[in-house]
Structure formats: structure tokens, C-alpha cells
Design a protein that fits this description.
Four copies of one chain form a homotetramer. Chain A has 374 residues and is of the alpha+beta class. Chain A contains ten helices and 17 strands. Chain A has a single domain, classed as Chorismate synthase, AroC fold (4-Layer Sandwich). Chains A and B meet through helix 2, helix 3, helix 7, strand 10 and helix 8 of A and helix 2, helix 3, helix 7, strand 10 and helix 8 of B.
Chain lengths: 374, 374, 374, 374
């Protein structure tokens, strides 16, 4: 079983991660770790790209010569600006953030003590863990991508694109959108919002390829794979909605058209020609691609700040202005990939057990053989 | 901390529930328990109402003279048709259900062994637990309702209605819809679908009133209240999408219009005049109503069955036909209320601790006083 | 992963158990379940044997035709005397029981509400779960026994006896003691204590045979197998001490004599000729028998009651007298076997994963082969 | 709820800790943290004292200006000798350590990869967490000590000493023993063992003062305070036995003499004049001092190494010699204090809830008042 905890404030010394439960024998690809962290920082709409120093994750335990040994893995990601004890006192809570509720809950007069931890800075930790989980999954040909499908009212059409094509198209788009025309219009919307000192939310989609039939379970409600995935995506800062497969569109369709009929061929075994269920039926993976979408709200820190109340004197005020982005949906998608990778890896280890990569591979291969004989 | 497990198959002897962690001193209202179970069974679109015997939940431990004593509570709900060992062998998996993935995962030749547990029959257990949690929350003036907002393409408009008005309107609607005109059209859609041997999905909304500021936390991702609520709603059979507050609509709005500005008055303390966030900011309740929506897919068991494959001989076949409903969105909303009540109660006990109602009331009152002085 | 909850009061309607996580394909042996429950009731020193009606555990879900299907298993064990709501008010807490602390913690004026749940009656639930776990383990040639090693100051000597011999000897002893001479003297001590209206504690030993190398882990402290086993044994009513292998005797030995040197032979692979470690090194099973001992305190309910205080008026009083046993160490050992079986089964499933017996057997066989090649 | 994970290998870069769930408003006393870490290193029988550089724990997140803010706390403790990737390959497993079982479980050819994590070096992390929990508990007048009661066959007599006297006596003893005469003889035994290239185990006792009535619960077996405490102590490297109160001596006593009669006075409320139960009845604290003892086995790394097998060629060999101590019972007691502090703090927060010290103090005071009125 995988377990993890993260720690760290956005202007603290560093972000810290501990991940327990990774099997031994996995060679960690530092290149992948690095590129995932970079992906999180790099889409159009974030702060000025040139100036952003890339995040560097240092694995400080759990490896020998670059290979996992079954020990917990700790990761440190240094913050660029370590000044948490000298930053100014804040008393003007920003609407849309943890500021006011957090200060009241924890009895903190200086709202800085809330926003340092509630900040999306913590997502860097999740991306680092996700990078390790992705590597584990890749050993079993499970592959994950995210791409942006809505920004600023612009809706991408990727219905005819393959997994591979979505990945290659999106990689060329500054906003991680696989529909070229939509990508351009999204950039225009972002530019316009920036000019108007405003921000944009949007929707990203995650696709997981290669998950075998039978992760998750209907036995107990908290073991349902979709519940775990939706819970994980919802736990990302600013995510306010999640859906699996056809999602909210199911409300408009009828049963006769809403499901994925079952077929069989010697070559493929059981299969479907549609995937409205998004790869999950009865709380379990059904062998088709897992498809999830999540909506990120517009970033609430605005250059043209919202009305609030000064908690010191209870008078109307303008919210504190922190440096911020115009649109971070692409980055949020990268965090989403990580969140999904962690849950899939966990369900995978729960099913296949195993303390070493060698053992899990043997168990996995045996199960695939069993499935083929079903 | 509340923990629970449920057990039981739809044609087994009974459904069984154990709930651990309820404080002592709560007088259980059997009338509420009964009415919640009845609500779950009774909306338009379910099987013929006249014939349905009401479910009866018997609390078999955890009470003395009707009052909780801090012991775990067990509940038994007898099934009407106890025939699990004599039912016919099934080899034609229904698309949209756990049938095929479950049989392959657990190595079960008789698909009956899957559908007995994966069935939505298990939701009766959740409703029973939820009824107890609701009673606990009512002691602290926390109140929960659900109402149907979309069925068969018909969208209800309840934007101007108060909590109280939504409840009273919905209670008069056979489909639990608070918009009278929409309610009528929903019924027509259900009738049409029934005639055409089809089924309908839809969307329900849940509103929770009276939650104090500060349940949940941003400290660790799995402690975020929205993540727990979205995970819990997603774990309900047939739910494929969930959203908080403006949800997916956030994708279309801009930051300047997407958040809830903060105000203060002597009488109310800090408050908002809008509630786009659905009562949750930074993973915590912010004192406004908590508003959630979930989409239920159309019931996949059709009187006019879908294509599938006979697992015995791998030949194309028509899916097994089980007795089923045309539309169960109203009932699903009742289950959703229960799922939400359980999570809110858990977050509540985590914050206020306490082994007896008396103790929790004292801790809660002290905190409210602290908030007023903030 | 196995999870369970139990519920029920000693004079309530029934004891209820839910066990989640058992794989499919295990044929439940009702005979074993019955005999384990009988064992728990039947040793010398318990209440008069003739009068005790045997406990009957009914599995009310999770099986089809006697075989597990991956669903949670619920078990009901009816109480003989269902009178919880009519029993007299108690205000004289018994020393050595939960009575006073429980009443104060939960704010319960009637101490009856405490003792109904804190009673050792709940151990019947654990024995029922343990019986299922034992059956699972037996599929992998893992076998568990308990025997009594100290009662009333009489110490059994079983140092030269094999697992098999201990079992057969103990099965002939009315006190479950494998040393015939000691068994006789224990009975005499019990008789004497009964005459003198007193009670006796003692020590039982548990041996688990056939556990493969590598259950548990040193990776994180709560994953150590010994910590889980000691925690589980300590959670049994009246158990006040636990030890693994040489246990407290380690305090008197030196390092040069305290450990188990390692040998190798073609036939056995790696092995030890001693087992001071009790089969656990570094928080993991090492392939030798797991050996645990636990001490049960004398039953605190005495026919000649202890001094206490009436909580109603704060005056000195004699403790309430409940029907009780003179010595229950043999029974406690049976509960201990169950507690150990549950933990071993859980660690086993964590290592080998698997949703069906077929799958776990394949994974287990593959691992044994890997070990032989090490 | 407190949760923590630790990471780090003994020759890795550093040990890392994350602790989630500490309330806001606690001023961290770095002096206490430092002195606890020093205590762990400093007793007679450890490696030569002069040469040991003290461990320094740096809190790298979770504080602002030295005060907790409700965020997770991360702690880094640098290792002196960071050489994990260059250390020699080991193939001679040491009996009494994780070496052989760990290598087989994780499929690791180089046993170095096992002993780096299974090493008692990890206890420094637990001591650091424990220091924070102790500070939290001290805010509520809960105080914890450990002292050594057996080493090398020498048994200390502290039966007539108060908590305060035990602490002051032990602080003057190089082996942390509160009985002056025994302390001297223990030192002699350690010297003798060192000369003979041998090692010694022993027993330490932990006493917790000031725990209010009612932490823990009998409601579910895993909620029993003694089970959690015994599990936590058992999870410390080399601990093989644990007991509460009279512990194994209960096996030799009779019920009439084994329990703690209950008295009442205006000034004290309910109290006992004996404490055989070690402060826990029915799985709950009963208001008396909590008394626990644990046995540490002799350190298995001997300067005169034990027989083993070379895993490379399966030939008989002498175990690897790592630098080691003669006797570490005093240090183990310091780790035990930490393990106990963490569990007590967790049970405390479960009962009193609360996100800030201010809130918990209010809840705690309210409960104490309730108890006085019982």
C-alpha cells in the first residue's frame, strides 16, 4: 500500500515529501521527474516563463545507486524565496482562497500563516510523487496523459483523436490543448484576460491507457476506483468538479445509448467499441481507457482585487494581492496526472501485492494469463 | 472518528451495517430512520409503488432504551426475497454494470455472484447510517436536503428559492423537484422513457445548512472537505460526476466574477452575498451553505436489453434482464444526502472531539464563541 | 486488505461482525467455525459447562453455497439472554473493569451501559473472524495453536515438545495445557481458587507454523509484524503483557547466546537450529515458527467483591457481582489465536495481493520459488 | 488526528520526518528537542561518548517564528556519514537483524540495502516527533519519563519512589537507573560484557503522569489505549516484550489481590491507593499514572560475530561486523518515551478535537469540570 505525506510552506525553506510502500527494484528516471516538474511550471498563462527558475526535486532517501530498495522515499524541493518569518502581516483575506476560513479555524491573526500552506505551491510535491508512480506504472505499460479541453469558453474537439495523437498535438500547444484551432483561441482568451487584469479557469482531461480489468472493487463503497480517483482530483487546489467518462452528459442521454456494449474476439478478448463509461464500471477498471475530466476555477488572486474585510478592524478593504497567474489549467492537468497516477498505482499494488518489481511482474503476468482464459 | 462497514447481497438474508464512533447520549428517532428509508424507495420512476414493501431497519446493538451509549451501532435490514443460493446461473454480463469486470477480477463463473453485491441494494445501508448522522447533525442545527435538478433533459430553475422553499416544493413533487413546471415535464419524460422501454439519468443537488466555518483542512490533501464529499458522492452506484458550487460552470467564468466577496456586519459576522464556492474554500467549510451536485447515469438494466457476450461460449447475446426502474435520480439524491451527512458528521467529530453529546455541545458552543470574537 | 468491525452488547440481541477483504473462492468450513466457538467456551474454570448453550455463528452474507465471493462477510451470533433494556441500574463500579472510567468518559450514569460493551462477550466476534482467517491460512499450510503455560503459579514445561505434540497433549487437557503434570496441578489451583471465591490469571502461548519469510516490514514502524501482533494480542480483554520468542528473558541473556545463528542446506534452504527470536526478525517473519505469549490478569469480577464507591452518593460500597468464571486463560488463548490469525492473514494478503484464492495461490507459489532461488 | 511517516537510511543524506495534525499555537522548544535527541545518544554502554557528534534536528516546515500554524511539520536530521552509494556489498547476514529476511523479501542481493533502513538509526526520527508531542502534552500537565529497571541480570528496586524522585535519581545515573546501587552494578555488568566482546539487553519502564480519565475506548478493539501503546512500544527496534502495570506478574497473583479498589474523597474525586493496572482499565486511562515496561533484546551485532551463511555461495561464514554498542537500554527507553508520547497525544486529540491550542485547552477544561461533577 502506498501512503504519503507532504509538508512545506510556499515561502518556507523547502517542500518535503515522504512516500512509503514503493517496491524495490525500480530504477528512478531523474529525467522524467525533472520534466514532470517542469511541465507543471511551463504552460502559457503562468507567470513570465523566462524568470521562473525550474524546480529541482532531490530524492534524499529510499534509493541506492538510483534504484528503489523498498524503503520510504523522501524528496526535497527547495523554495526559491525562503522568507516565511519576515513576510508582512496580512489581515485582508482573499475571496476564493483558504484565507478567512483558515484563519478562523486555526485562530491565526496573521493570514500569512494560512496562505503559506494552502497555496498551490504544495502541488509540486504531488507531482514529484506522481512521477515515481508513473514510472512504476510504465513498467506495466500503463500510460497517463492530460490535455486541456476548455479555457475561457473555448472548447476543444478531440473526439476523433487517438491517445498518441492527443499527446503529440498537446505537446506542441502552449496551453497543452490537442485541438490546434482551439489552442490558438485559448491563447487569445488568456491574453485578453491578462490585459483586463482578470483570470480564467477551465477543464482538463486525463486519459489512462493500459489499466487491466479489475482494479478497485464494489465490495465496500470506499474501495470503488472512481470514488478514489474523483476524491484525489477534487483534492487538488481550485478543482471544483470532476467527471468520469460521459460525466454530466449522462443526464441528457437515455439508457439505450448510454452504455458500452460488450464484444469478443479471439485477438482482443472481451472489448467495447465505445467508452462512455470512461473505463470504469461497478467501481472497477473494465480494461478500456480511463477517462476523467476536472474543472479548475479561475485563480482568485486578481491584479484587480476583490472586496473583502480587514479582519483587524472589520472595515471594507481590497484583498491582498499576491503574484499570480492568469490561467493555470494546463499545470493543474499535470497535477491531476500525478493524483491519478498515485491512486492507480495504489490500487495496482493492492491487487498485485509484492515487495519487489520482479515479484509484481510475475503476479501481474499470471493474472493477465488468467484473464485471457476467462 | 466515524467508521462503518456494510455487508449484504440483494437476494441474501439481510443487509448489515456496523457504525463505530457515534457519541453517547443521542436519542435515535426511529421515525426519521423509517422515513429516510421510505424516501429512498418512493419516487416516481421506481418500480410500481404499490407493490414495494417498505424497508425496515432494525438497530440490533449500540442503544439502550433508544439512546446511544458510545458502543458501535449495528443495523439489520431484511431482504424481501432471500433466494441467493437458488437463483439461476448468469453468463450474460450487462453493459454498464460491474458484471463482466467483477467476474473476471474475482474469477467468478456465475455472474450472479457479482451483481448480488454490486447492486444498488447496498445503498439502503448507507441511507440507514446517514439517518443516524443526520440526527447527530440536527443537534447542532445542521440540516441537509436533496432535490432533483435535471431529468431527461429537463432542467429545473431553483436559483431564487430558499433552502426552506426548495424543501417544501420538492416534497410535493413526485420526482423531488422543487420547480413545479419542470417537475411536470420530468414526469412526462419518465413516462415516455417507460413506454419506450428506456431509462433516464439526471442530476440532483444537495444543500447543507448550518455547517460552521472550519470543517476540513488544507493541511494535507486527503483532509480537504470537498475531496471527501466528492469522493463519497462518487462512491454511490451510478454516479459519474460531481461538482461543488458553480462546478463546471467555473470553466466559463472569469476570476473577477467567480468568487464570493467578503462582508461583515455586527449581526452576521463575516458573510458573503453570493455563494459560487458552494460553501467550501481552501478545503474547508466557510460558513455558507454547502452546495453539491451529482450526475447519475441512466440505469443500465433495460427491458430492451443491450448487446453482450455469453461468457460461457463467447457468442454474442442479449444482456440478462433484471427487474429495474426507469429513473432513480430522486432516490439517488436521498443516498447522496446520507453520503454527505456521514462525511460532515465525521469532519464535525474530528474538529469537536467528544465522546458524549453533552461534551460535543460544550466544545461546539465554545468554538462558536471563539469565532464571534475573531 | 482485511478490515473488520464488531458490534453488540452482552445482553443485547446479538453480536454482529462485518469482515471486508476476504478473497473469493474459499469454501467456509462451518465445522471449524463451530468448533472454534466451542473451544472458546469450554475450558475448565469457566462457568458450569453443562449449562452453557453453545454459541452459534450464522454467516448472513458474503457467501454463495458456502463459498466466499469477494463480498464482505457478516456474521450474527445470537445472545442467550436478551434483556439489555430491562436490566437494573448499576452505580457500583467494579475495580479492574471499564466500569468507572467508561461511565465518566461517556457521561453514563448507569454503569450497565458500559459493561455491556466492554464485556469479554465481544471476544466471540473475534473468534468467528479468526476462524475464517485460519481457513484462509490453512490453504497455504499455515497453522496456529494456543496452549496454556502458566496458571496459578504452575508453570508448564513444553520446551521439548513439537508443534504436533503440543497440540495433541493440550487437546487432552481440561485447561489446554500440553504438560500433563502441570495440567493436573493447574486444575487443583483452579479448584482451590473457586472454593476461596477467588480467580486466577495466567499465560498462554501461541505458535504459528508455516509462515513464509517476509511478512511485515521494517520500512515504517507500524508495518512491523511483531508490532501488529503485539498490538492485536494486547487488545484482548484482560491481556496485560505480551512477548515474542524469548521475550522478557532477553533481559537476562547476553548477545552471544540470544540470537539464532543461520545455516543452510540444500533440502531446507536457509534455516536456524534455535528460535529465540520467535520467528520474527527486523519486523518480518523469518521462516521459523512464530511464537508469542500473553498474560491474562485474574478476572476482576469476584464472588467476594472488592471495595468501590457508589457513584450515586459517593459512599463506600461493594462492587456489583456479575456471574463470572474462576479462570479463563484457556479461552483467552483461543481468542489470541483468532487475533493472531487475523493479523497474519492481513499481512499475507498485503504481500500476495489477490482477489481470488486461485490468484493468491499462484502469487504465493511464485514467491516460494523465488525464495528457493535466492 | 496525528499521522507521521519517517524516511532515511543510516548512511544516507539525512533522516526525514513529516508529522501531520499538530494544532496551531504551540511554541516549539528547541531546547527540549535538542535534549531529547542528546538523551537518546548518551547513556553508558553506547559507543564512546566523546566521539559522538550530537544529532541536530532542523524543523524545515510547519512553524512561523517558532510557533506551529496547523501545517504539517517536517524535520530533517543530517547523517554524519553520508556514503550509502559507496559502501561495500554485504552477503553475510547478521542473525538477530532484518538482514536475511529483508534481503529475501525484497529480492536484494546486497544486504546493505536492508540494514541501512532497518537500522535503529531510524529511532532518531521517532524521538524528534516524540519531543513535539511531549511539548503538546506538557501544555496539559501530562509528563512522561523512562528509567532502566533491568540490565545484565541486575534488577532495580524503585517501588517506593515517586515520579519526581525516579526522574531525579535516574538523571544522575549513567545508565538512567533510579536505584543507585543497581545502577553501579549495571555499569559493572556493561563493562564486563564489553571486555568479553558481548552485549546486554534489559528492561525499561515508562511512566506517564497526568493523563485524564477516558483516553482510548473499549468500543472497538483497535481503539484500546493499551493496545495502541503496546503496539507502539513493540514497533521499536529490538523490543521483544511489553507489559502494562503488573504485566506478567498477574499470572502469579489472584483476583482478590490483583486489582485496584476504588475510593472517593472531596479533594481527589475518585482515586485508587494501588496502581496494579498501570493506569489503564477497559482499554481506557483511569486517571492513575500509566506504567509500561518493555524488554530490549541484547544488540545482535557482536564484535565477536555469530555464525551465518554467505548468501552468495551458501557457505558458512561469520556475520558482518558493524560498529555497535554494548548496551542501549537507556536509549531505547528514550525512544519508548517518544513512542508513548505520540500515542497519548493522538488519543488526546481524538478526545478533545481542536485545531488550535486555545481550542483544545477550552475543551479539556470543560471535560475536567464535567468529570468533577460526575
Amino acid at each position: 500500500m502506498l501512503r504519503y505525506l507532504t509538508a512545506g510552506e510556499s515561502h518556507g525553506e523547502s517542500m518535503t515529501v515522504i512516500l512509503d510502500g514503493m517496491p524495490s527494484g525500480l530504477r528512478v528516471d531523474n529525467g522524467l521527474l525533472k520534466s514532470e516538474l517542469k511541465m507543471r511550471q511551463s504552460f502559457y498563462g503562468r507567470g513570465k516563463r523566462m524568470k521562473i527558475e525550474p524546480d529541482i526535486a532531490r530524492i534524499s532517501s529510499g534509493l541506492r545507486k538510483g534504484v528503489t530498495i523498498g524503503s520510504p522515499i523522501s524528496i526535497l524541493i527547495r523554495n526559491k524565496d525562503f522568507s516565511i518569518d519576515s513576510l508582512a502581516f496580512i489581515t485582508k483575506p482573499r475571496p476564493g482562497h483558504a484565507d478567512l476560513a483558515g484563519a478562523m479555524k486555526y485562530g491565526l491573526k496573521d493570514i500569512r500563516s494560512v496562505l503559506e500552506r494552502s497555496s498551490a505551491r504544495d502541488t509540486v510535491s504531488r507531482v514529484a510523487i506522481g512521477a515515481l508512480c508513473k514510472q512504476l506504472l510504465m513498467e506495466f505499460d500503463i500510460d497517463i496523459l492530460s490535455h486541456v479541453v476548455i479555457v475561457g469558453g473555448v472548447i476543444a474537439d478531440t473526439s476523433d483523436l487517438s491517445f498518441k495523437k492527443i499527446r503529440s498535438n498537446a505537446s506542441k500547444s502552449p496551453v497543452n490543448c490537442a485541438d490546434g484551432a482551439a489552442s490558438k483561441r485559448m491563447i487569445e482568451e488568456i491574453d485578453r484576460a491578462r490585459l483586463e487584469k482578470d483570470t480564467l479557469g477551465g477543464v482538463f482531461e486525463i486519459i489512462v491507457k493500459g489499466v487491466p480489468v479489475g482494479l478497485g472493487s464494489y465490495s465496500q463503497s470506499d474501495r470503488r476506483l472512481n470514488a478514489r480517483l474523483c476524491g484525489a482530483l477534487s483534492s487538488i487546489q481550485a478543482v471544483k468538479a470532476v467527471e468520469v467518462g460521459a460525466g454530466f452528459d449522462y443526464a441528457l442521454s437515455r439508457g439505450s445509448e448510454a452504455h458500452d456494449e460488450i464484444f469478443y474476439s479471439r485477438a482482443k478478448g472481451f472489448y467495447r467499441s465505445t467508452n462512455r463509461a470512461g473505463g470504469i464500471e461497478g467501481g472497477m477498471s473494465n480494461g478500456e481507457d480511463i477517462v476523467l475530466r476536472a474543472c479548475m476555477k479561475p485563480i482568485p488572486t486578481l491584479m484587480s482585487p476583490l472586496s473583502t474585510v480587514d479582519t483587524k478592524n472589520k472595515k471594507a478593504a481590497r484583498a491582498t494581492v499576491e503574484r499570480s497567474d492568469v490561467c493555470a489549467v494546463g499545470s493543474c492537468g499535470v497535477v491531476g496526472e500525478a493524483a491519478v497516477a498515485i491512486e492507480i498505482a495504489n490500487a495496482f499494488l493492492e491487487k498485485f501485492g509484492g515487495d519487489s518489481l520482479q515479484e509484481i511482474k510475475r503476479n501481474h503476468a499470471g493474472y493477465l494469463k488468467q484473464l485471457r482464459k476467462f
